[in-house]
Design brief:
This protein has one domain. Helices cover 83% and strands 0% of the residues. The protein has helices at 3-28, 36-62, 68-94, 98-127. Helix 1 (3-28) packs antiparallel against helix 2 (36-62) and helix 2 packs parallel to helix 4 (98-127).
Length: 133
């Protein structure tokens, strides 16, 4: 099993744990004790960004290598715009606590961004023809 597969499996395992924790917390914990709804809904933008990023990396790898970084960075920019709209949509319609929600979004966004960048580095080492590693 390649190191990029291990990274994906680790990220999927973390996503599953966080989603199950959020769902369990929404059922068990009262909202006054811990901002459970914000925790659950705050992880979704990071998960969506991670999924789009991994897809863009895999799609870009199969296409022209000269345009790989252009495609990956362009998809990251587009996903940031979509995530901003998604975050505003959730804040408006779900009436979440803004402070807890934004902090949770940033924490999960950076966590999954780290996994995405590690995945990018591991896949690039295998595919780049001028790589000396």
């Amino acid at each position: 099993m390649g190191s990029e597969k291990k990274i994906l499996y680790t990220a999927i395992m973390l996503i599953s744990i966080f989603i199950l924790t959020g769902l369990t917390g929404m059922i068990i914990a009262p909202a006054e004790v811990f901002p459970v709804r914000e925790f659950f809904w705050g992880q979704l933008p990071g998960i969506l960004n991670f999924g789009v990023g991994v897809w863009a990396i895999n799609f870009g790898r199969k296409k022209n290598p000269d345009h790989f970084m252009l495609f990956v960075l362009g998809s990251m920019t587009l996903s940031m715009v979509i995530l901003a709209v998604f975050i505003l949509f959730l804040l408006y319609f779900l009436n979440l606590n803004q402070n807890y929600y934004i902090i949770t979004v940033f924490i999960f966004y950076f966590l999954y961004l780290i996994f995405q960048l590690i995945y990018l580095v591991k896949t690039e080492k295998k595919t780049h023809p001028n790589n000396v590693h």
